[in-house]
Write a structure and sequence with these properties.
With about 60 residues, the chain is mainly alpha-helical. The longest helix is centred in the last third of the chain and has 27 residues.
Length: about 60
């Protein structure tokens, strides 16, 4: 596998790990203790991170051949 593709796969893996941690946090009482703006910003961050993960996945799939 080319170096750039290995870095792409690693980036997606790292991002997905961070997304899992964020999802766990968002299911906690600590998340609920944040003010409405803090909760909103984390939801927006998660949304954009999920979109970025999907784009990375598409790029990886596009270069499989």
């Amino acid at each position: 596998m080319a170096d750039w593709k290995e870095r792409l796969v690693q980036e997606k893996s790292d991002l997905d790990e961070t997304l899992t941690k964020l999802a766990n946090f968002m299911g906690s009482d600590k998340f609920l203790s944040l003010d409405i703006i803090g909760q909103y910003l984390l939801r927006m961050q998660r949304s954009h991170m999920m979109e970025y993960s999907s784009i990375l996945e598409a790029r990886i799939a596009h270069h499989k051949g």
